[in-house]
Specification:
Helices cover 69% and strands 9% of the residues. The chain contains 14 helices and 5 strands.
């Protein structure tokens, strides 16, 4: 018995060694997950984009700003010409924190009076805002100790867009993004593969219905379900948790339509390659849900990720849509602020749709030739 079992085990190991896909799942998947989770999943603040408005022109204030810029925790990404300019940069999410120095900085320092520095933080991400507040307070406290005998620096924090730092305000836009991607891409890929497995797709091909009509008829119901789920989440969040909706519904609808189109095209592309529903589901999860959760900025700030992982986030459509949703829902900004993200989403949608259509036509021709 032992010999037979050992022989079967040896045979199975030889099969596994020759099966590249199995080896990728056994070896590649855990390695990828460890590297991704170990590098991308961090709440540490690194290179946080900061804006500065210093109407005082003080040399001490300039040295303080240089110290922050060289700390590795902050990057001075914007030097504002006015308070309005600084607020616009915060609205457009070009910076995540802003420092406002008093006009009488030099006079207060010479008299040994406390120097209040206003710190404006983007409260649309409560975790990042609280952590950033701790970092800036620590940095300014250290600098204040160096100024001992002259004047202490006092931090005056203010949280914008979410003053009470309610976490559900931050979570809801992310949930809308994940649900739209899940319903659009995952269910679409499974539905089309199911038609092929049951043989009904071949029956449709011999009917008067054209291939493009098959695709449209299959995709539109899931687009409608995605929009319905998105509206349900927003309505529940607003009615139960009092999540504000500061922007216009039309703006959010426009961005959502482009994002859903990209997700549907991704699902169609997966369905044209996958042979079974299980393969389609696993491929859709790997290509959509995991990147949308880990690499979109939903939970972990992109600015704190290593450069290599940060570059990967540019290939994740959810990154751009999530930024739009947070801008519309929490800040009330319009397309004049987030049109670059909308343009990138449009490029994703067009490219994926062309690729998916070509690949799906090829798959249909294969079925017709059988």
């Amino acid at each position: 018995m032992e010999r037979r079992v050992l022989a079967l085990m040896g045979k199975e190991f030889r099969h596994i060694r020759r099966d590249v896909r199995t080896l990728l799942v056994v070896v590649g998947m855990p390695l990828l997950m460890v590297l991704l989770y170990g590098t991308a999943l961090t709440f540490d603040v690194r290179e946080l984009p900061v804006g500065v408005w210093d109407p005082s022109g003080s040399a001490t204030a300039r040295r303080l700003v240089e110290r922050l810029d060289q700390s590795g925790y902050f990057v001075v990404a914007h030097r504002a010409a006015s308070d309005r300019d600084l607020a616009r940069a915060l609205d457009e999410r070009r910076i995540r924190m802003a420092l406002v120095f008093p006009r009488d900085f030099e006079r207060r320092q010479s008299r040994g009076e406390p120097i209040p520095i206003q710190v404006l933080l983007d409260g649309s991400d409560p975790n990042l805002a609280v952590i950033s507040k701790g970092y800036i307070e620590m940095a300014l406290a250290q600098y204040s100790q160096e100024l001992a005998g002259t004047a202490p620096v006092r931090v005056e924090p203010r949280f914008w867009y979410n003053p009470e730092l309610v976490s559900v305000y931050y979570i809801v836009p992310g949930l809308v993004t994940i649900i739209l991607m899940l319903v659009s891409a995952l269910l679409t890929s499974i539905a089309l593969v199911r038609e092929r497995e049951t043989g009904t797709l071949e029956q449709l091909l011999i009917s008067p219905v054209r291939p493009v009509e098959i695709v449209i008829g299959k995709l539109l119901p899931y687009a409608g379900l995605a929009f319905l789920d998105g509206l349900l989440i927003l309505a529940t969040a607003h009615g139960v948790y009092r999540v504000p909706f500061a922007g216009r519904a039309l703006d959010l609808g426009l961005a959502s339509a482009v994002f859903v189109l990209a997700a549907l095209a991704m699902g169609l592309l997966i369905s044209s390659v996958a042979r079974t529903q299980l393969v389609a589901m696993l491929a859709a999860l790997m290509a959509t849900i995991l990147p949308s959760v880990l690499l979109s900025g939903f939970i972990f700030p992109i600015s704190s990720m290593p450069q290599a992982i940060r570059l990967l986030t540019y290939a994740v459509p959810a990154r751009y849509y999530l930024k739009i949703v947070r801008n519309v829902v929490l800040k009330g900004t319009g397309p004049e602020v987030w049109w670059p993200e909308l343009a990138v989403l449009g490029g994703f949608a067009a490219g994926l749709l062309v690729l998916a259509t070509l690949r799906f036509r090829h798959a249909l021709y294969d079925l017709e030739g059988r």
